[in-house]
């Protein structure tokens, strides 16, 4: 196998089971100036709490030593490098750790490009909500009205809003979770319809609107909806409606281009006791659910503009800060995804944002609603392979999806 990295010492140690939820943990740590917030964001903890009405806990002062400690000790068995940036009127801090390239030992650049994974969903939700503001789509109408024949005939009506807040009940994408398959298909181009077909061979998971379960499937459908309503490619709409108006010069929709713009930090995948460089990889599988590239600075610009109402009118923006009153499917945990964002309350402070993971990278962007404290972080995470049947790769892999899918 080509592109292997001589770093067996980094993958020979026992892997921390919480590492897959580290993007969210680190985001909370950055926002709240503590070294960790495991009760709120630890992988699989099921302890993500909802915003308390009227909660007004003062922001703590920044603790630079704690923030630096949160990214210290890299590279290690699970990660190669990390970047943390905190902004806002309540204080600012920035730091990096580890290396961008195991072969050269180059430091992590503060302006590194990275694959933002499921943070793409926030961008996609903005496009759909913009179309709603233009009265080109009814969020409470079934998506079958706009995309006839896409969903299986036996599926019940699913509204556009249910796509955006993960209450659609659609099954997850069903692709092999084998690292060798991932490596071998890193340049393979898939259409959204081909990826969706792997999900649609399964029955609906629950009655739409009755529960919440995170999947890429809903946002692949949302991307096709954007194309159908505009008559234009998804990437072109994103560039014209979000990227260019905000001046996001370092943000891109790569399409079938496997490259990352320089500067960047390499992404690695752990395969059979070795690290494989997976920096160059086609992103056609996640597409509108997870394909975009950006930088910490650009993500901060995007989130700030979004929260300030520069991208959406007030009625549509309010939907991004409204969590449906249902439970996570198969649990007694309250839902925590809105239409394009996710939320948690940690130590009395409510934050909104999004996490994302692609092979080699895990990241998050978070802010208080008033933007007094904002955080962007990414880490080069060595995702484990050889883990059996696939689950929908919608979110940080610490999030457990109750429905197990079969490998092909």
TrEMBL record:
Keywords: Carboxypeptidase, Hydrolase, Protease, Signal
Matches recorded under InterPro entries: AmpC-like, Beta-lactam-related, Beta-lactam/transpept-like, TAT_signal
Organism phylogeny: Bacteria, Bacillati, Actinomycetota, Actinomycetes, Pseudonocardiales
Gene3D superfamilies: DD-peptidase/beta-lactamase superfamily
Domain of life: Bacteria
Species assigned in the record: Amycolatopsis saalfeldensis
Start and end residues of each Beta-lactamase-related domain: 86-370
UniProt name for this protein: D-alanyl-D-alanine carboxypeptidase
Protein's UniProt keywords contain Hydrolase: yes
Annotated GO MF terms: carboxypeptidase activity
